[in-house]
Fold these 3 entries.
Entry 1:
Amino acid sequence: MPDTQFDLIVIGGGPGGYVAAIRAAQLGMKVALVEREFLGGVCLNIGCIPSKALLKNASVVDTFRNAKDFGITVEKFTPDYAAAVARSRTVSNRLVKGVEFLMKNGNDVITYREAILMRELPSPIVIVGAGPIGMEFAYVYHSYGADVTVIGMLPHLLPREDTEVSVELEKAM
């Protein structure tokens, strides 16, 4: 590709880089995204996202371990760390696939302004942002049968709400 010309070259495919590349493409620029190792960044691939998944598993293990404190008897309990790691990789990989999908389809990126006026159900759809607008669209689209993936950078959905609210929403989603 030595003779290819770009309006913008974004170095780094982390959350800042891939979002910048998508936005530039939305604005009509010819964009190249250069990423050495992890599309979606370290956090998404081997950092905060998989570690939060492991923390959730550890919380469930502790809940089972202390089940009698809640009036629950658990006859046999065997935590499986390898399964927890596998689950954390599944969570991370699902989100990475969402970013990959966005990179392959930069021309199909819309904002909430276009989304609110669409008459056809988008499916599959990746929603970037787990704030109120993103979660409202995720709920509506999923209720109508769309395959929805939500990508958020922070540890919880609706990160500006009380943690208890976010955790309950995550259980429901």
Entry 2:
Amino acid sequence: MDFGFFRAVGFAMVAVLGLAGCEQLPRGAAVEREIVAAADGEAADFAVYTVDRALLAILQDWPDTGAHRYGWIPTSGGARTQVIASGDVLEVTIWDSNESSLLSADGQRQVQIQSLTVAPDGTVFVPYVGNTQVSGLTLQLAREHLQDEIDLVVPSAQVQLTLVEGRTNSVDLVGGVSAPGAYPLPDRNYTVLNLLAAGGGVQPSLVNPQIRLRRGGNIYGTSVERLYASPNLDTLLHGGDQVIVEEDRRYFLSLGAAGQQSQHPFTQDRVTALDAMAIVGGVDSRRGDPGGILILREYPASAVRPDERGPSQARVVFSLDLTSADGLFSARNFHIHDGDLVLVTESPITSAQTIFGLVGSVFGLANQTANIGN
């Protein structure tokens, strides 16, 4: 009997068992129980919730986290005419066939008055008429108003009026389209989709493009996908509006035994846990635990509640089991938030497989040692 062989095996087995007992085997992710068990301690600073049908109903009252969610302005009807505003430029042409016209020289039948800028108080200055109010009028009504004013001076004259839109009668389209720039409002029925079409459409390379509407001191926002799907959201534009098209800035992280460990942008307005698993490439079949999917999220301190209308701790771990029907259906309706961490824990079986692999290596090494000794 070769006692050297068994001595080598014995020493190696002790080393392997000691390594396994200390749980120091090399791994790429934590085991679920290692994280969840800490929540039961008195000093635990995080809470663990199992994602199931009952929890989904409770989460409806919890606040969103991550990026600020903007409101949007529903559409309403507008007139299909332009309205004169401060900053617009008018060009007035006065026609007069009278030989001794007050406004025109001998042999001249028309007078052009160019570059009449509408003042902040909404008036323009016209010779022999003075300051006259035009702001808030359509081009046709303003022409009729000027005609009445000039009739008092030159009854035989006729007025023609044209408009060049100023800043308060135009909107800015910024980024995310083929042709960004300033666009005049042709009428009061001009919408966001009209503007996007004028700009050549949204660039197809943008991931889940978002619309941001700056109006005065407020910012409104929605996604292009939502805008396309809901005609009632195609809001009317006002002079001075700024419309920005940009890529969705929200993201979530994936770590552990997932197919990919990376930062992932939101590809749609709502990303569920199942969507997230598909985005990250699922569970690594060699070492991942589909029954131990953890989603780590931080809520603001103001969201913490003693009842079920908020989390019991600011730091929360949601546990999903993708090996059960209820877990799969619940994951399909559990929404990922901006900044969430999706952690795929490692299967406990992986450690056992590592131990058995080490044991096999030990016997192989012992055999080689015995053969050398012989």
Entry 3:
Amino acid sequence: MNVVGFSVLMATYGRDNPAYLAEALESLAHQAVPPDEVILVEDGPIGPGLREVIEAWRGRLPLVSVVMPANVGLARALNEGLRHARHALVARFDSDDVAEPDRFVRQLAAFAEGGVDVLGGWALEIDAAGVPGRVRRMPQGHAEILDSLWACPLIHPTVMFRREPILVLGGYRTDLRRSEDYDLWFRCAKAGLRFANLPEVLIRHRFDASSHLRHAFRDALERALTGYRGAALIGLPLWKRLACFVPLFRSMLPMALRHPAYRLLSRFDPRRRSA
């Protein structure tokens, strides 16, 4: 395999857990093929805990700090990080997840074969203590991903993409609070970019019942509207456009019922049936 240089793109902000960030960075340091640069965008002021973690890892990882004077949100932070990336391939990663040691080996091999612009994979859900839960599986091929794009069949922090086409599309939309990746995949599809998912776990993704606390009704409404517009953009049938509103109804349930509803509805997830 011809290994090419690649960048890892992350963002952190003041409310992030320093212990999670340390675990995330440690997982990057133990990759079979380490990144050539880790672009870490500081989205506004960060506390001493996060600062201590970043400085502790600066000598062990090729960290490139991009400092935003004020909190601007994930989309703007990622766009700024993209502008600093020096390599043609960029891997997204979240500050509270854990990368499997062979993540980048697998993704670089797939890019070396050609025919893909945006490449994700599966994720193992873990809770706050790192206890594993279910494996979040996604469809593999381009046609299957396009067919279920309304259900967002790409797990953002698993994705590696070609930097130049994303920049040509204008990067992430900055007027969206939590749907920046969802919107981007629709625009990638409209532009003719090729998708794929590796049928294997690439990251351990922190997600449990408390995760629903971070998703307010307005975020769910934004996501539903983003999905509806995106599905229309690429010509998906009306029922798939309307299906984008199912998570919105889940967000209207009492907090104690949201996670059980999420688990129940996951049995009918079209991404799992096409995986």
